[in-house]
Each structure stands twice: as structure tokens, then as C-alpha cells.
Amino acid sequence: MTVSVITLGCKVNECESRSLIAALREMGHVVSEEFISADIYIINTCSVTAEADRKSRQVIGKAVKANPAAKIFVCGCSSQYNPNAYEKYPNVVNISGSSKKSDILHHIMSDIVCDNRISICEIPQDFEIMRFPSHEKTRDFIKVQDGCNNFCSYCIIPYVRGRSRSRSIDSVKHEAEEAAKHTKEIVLTGIDVSSYGKDIGKSLVDLVNALAEIPVRKRLSSFECTVIDKELLTALKNSGFCDHFHLSLQSGTNSVLKAMNRKYTTEKYFEIVNLIREYFPNAGITTDIIAGFPTETEEDFAETCEFVRKVEFSDMHVFPYSERKGTKAASLPQLPMEDRRKRAHILGEIKAELKRKFLVKQLSKTLNVYFEESKDGEAAGYAENYVRVYGKANRGEIRTVKITELYKEGVR
After folding, report:
1. pLDDT tens digits, residue range 158-199?
2. 106-128 pLDDT per residue, tens
3. How far is 242 from 104, CA to CA, in rounded Å?
4. What is the pLDDT of residues 327-365, one digit of tens each?
5. Going by C-beta distance under 8 Å and a sequence separation of 6 or more, which residues neighbour residue 136?
């Protein structure tokens, strides 16, 4: 049969989908991670915002239009959050959640469709091992952790992903060794990578040190600033990790951070940014910002704008606040959506200004670039600090290049 596996949301979802793809191919099915006309669709959903929920449901209509006889399996965070939202679609034969996604394989093999289509499993307390995905891409993501204990007041993810749980170092190392046979770069990812190891008597430093001898470039997908110290930065520097740090900020004012239940102040955050730059002077430091959180005043927003300019991020992901039913922030008086979008737009302009400033700093510098794409005689890839670089190279080649000019959304 032909199977189309559609993934929405984060890189953790992508890792889990690729595990399913590898298993399905092993079973003899023709599988694509692109949207194609297929006999079976597996839709791995996201629920980080209301818009993500909407997009997840939208894919079902698209699948039915492509093949009115298709069987559709829904899994992931959106169906964990609200499984009943998917029951109304007659082509949906099974609705599972964010755990035990491999059970979908058993349903496909047995070809049994139950009257009770919802099969949400209890979220496990230990890290759930799935089949190793096939490592086919130029950059590979390896899932090392799942769940979150932070309970930020705006976030639904701890409720749909469960508590933080870590994968064993030996298991991570084994997959990294396999990936290194096919790629020149791996990215360690999870729902809250910063909490890695706390449940198994290990630490993020232990994991980083264990991967030191794996002969690939390495990245961590994101950090909380609260775990960064001299010991971790030394380990990253000595173990071949790239100088790109994605540090979620969310707000640049302490009163809003407190209302968000974030575990740091702007003063602490800025201290960590300066420490990173002591160890990695040309580091790319990126972040996430929520615009229009319920308690955010005009003065708070102005302070956030001032703070992000002070940090000088290399890039930012900016989102207007999206209330999620079941979270503490959803019960607060909400700002008009027009105000949220206006503030997000202003932050977007600051983002463009700061990104350009960081790119200008790269001119005349020599950077190591992993060229992952090649088209019409022009190659493109990323430097270690996650600057997008264009030049002449073969796909899959790492080259040391001198940056000469700004070009497209990056440099050349």
C-alpha cells in the first residue's frame, strides 16, 4: 500500500514520524513524508497553538479530497488534547495521542477497524523507545528527551506530552553512531532538552561529553538559560558542538516572565548571554518571543523591545499570544487579537533589524559551512552559528569559506 505520513509541529514529532516511516518501509509499503495521493494517511498533529490545531484538522480534508477511500490515522499532541475533534471525519479510522505511536503499525498490519476509534494511551513515565529512524537527510535529528515539567502558564504541552523523561546515554550514542555513517551533522532534540538526565541520574553535560568522539558536527535544538553554566559551555566547546544557542525568552520584562511562570529574570538571562559569548564570541543566539500575553502592558512591551535590542539576537521567532484552554493564562482577561498582532509585527521589524546587524558582522569572517542543498550551480547551507550561507560547493560538503556579501536571507 501507499502511505503518506504528514508531520505538523516540532522536530520531536518529525523524529517520531521518521521512525514510523522506517518501520512501514520495512513492512513493504511505499511511504512518503510528502503529501501525495495515498491509500493510508498518518497525520502526526501539533497543538502548540489554536492555529496548529486548525492546520492539523485541515490536513484531513485535504487527504479525503486526494483519495475519498483513504484510511486516516491521527496521532500526536492535538488528538491527545482533543480527540473528539477528529471523530466527525468518517475516513478517520483511529485516533491516538502523543505516546505509543508505533501502535498504528499494528492497526495497519491487522487491517482491523474498531467501532471505538479513539485509543488514547496513558502517557508513560519512562522514555519510550521507538525504532531507529532511517537516517537519510543531510542533517539528522535525534530525540533524546520527551515531556516537560515547567508548566509555563501559557503552554498546553506538559498536559499532552506528560512529565519530562530522558533517553539513556547509551541509546542516544548508538543512534548517533549510526547517523554518523550517513550525515555530517546531528541535532539533539526533545520537548525540554534542558531537563535531560534529571530523571535518570544523569545531566546534559554527561550526554554532551559522551558524544565527543562521534565524528559529526553536533547541535542542541534549544536550551533554557537556567541550565547554562561554565561546565556545560566547556563540554559543548570540547565535544564539537556548534556555536548556535536557541534560548527561549518569551518576554523581556520580569513582571510578565513571573506571570508566565518562567524560572529566570531578564538580568539572569542577559548574564547567561554574556557568558555564552565569552566561550563562543561569534555565537548565533536565537529566541522565541510571545507578543500580547494577557498581563503585558504597553510599558511591558516597550521594555521587551528594548531588551531584545540589548541582547542583539541573531534571529527571533515571534508569535502573537494564543490562549490554550486548560492553561492558567487562558483564564486571565485577554488582550484584543489586534493588539497582539500589532505587537508581533513591531517585534518582527526589530527581528529583521537585528538579523541584518548580525549578518553584517559576518562579512570578511571565515566560517565552516555545511552545504545541504545545491540547485542551478548554487549551493546553500548553514554555518556553525546557523547563518544561512550561499556559495559554490557540492551537496553534503563542509567547506571553510570567506563571507563577502549579504545575499538573500543570509550571506554569500
Report:
1. 999 999 999 999 999 999 999 999 999 999 999 999 999 999
2. 888 876 555 567 778 788 888 88
3. 36
4. 999 999 999 999 999 999 999 999 999 999 999 999 999
5. 182
Architecture of domain 139-358: Alpha-Beta Horseshoe (3.80)
Is the overall model pTM greater than 0.90, yes or no? yes
Closest CA to 20 of 38, 41, 5, 37: 5
Would you state the cell numbers that stand for residue 276, as one nine-digit string?
555564552
Say what percent of the chain tops pLDDT 70.
97
C-alpha distance across the termini of the chain, in Å: 44
Architecture label for domain 2-110:
3-Layer(aba) Sandwich (3.40)
Report the phi/psi class of residue 114: left, alpha or beta, with left for phi > 0 and alpha for psi in -120 to 50: beta
Residues in the chain, how many?
A: 412
**Strands 397-402 and 388-391: what pairing?**
unpaired
Phi-psi region for residue 138, left (φ > 0), alpha (ψ -120 to 50) or beta?
A: alpha
Residue 284's nearest CA partner among 411, 101, 397 is: 411
- Three-state secondary structure call for residue 371: strand
Are 78 and 43 within 8 A, CB to CB?
no
Q: What are the φ/ψ torsions at residue 115 (nearest 5 degrees)?
A: -65, -40
- With H, G, I as helix, E, B as strand and everything else as coil, classify residue 320: strand
**Residue 365 CB contacts under 8 Å (≥ 6 apart), including other chains:** 282, 402, 403
Contact residues for 355 (Cβ-Cβ < 8 A; gap 6+):
313, 314, 315
What sign has the CA pseudo-torsion 203, 129, 185, 385? negative
CA distances in angstroms from 6 to 44, 111, 265, listed in the order given: 6, 20, 38
8 with 44: CB under 8 angstroms?
yes
Are 269 and 244 within 8 A, CB to CB? no
Average pLDDT over residues 214-241: 96
Q: Under a CB-based contact definition with an 8 Å cutoff, are residues 280 and 235 in contact? A: no
Quick one: which of 405, 266, 279, 293 has its CA closest to 347?
Answer: 293
Task: Give which of 251, 261, 315 is closest to 289, Cα–Cα.
Answer: 251
Paired strand residues for 189: 143
Q: What is the pLDDT of residue 345?
A: 98
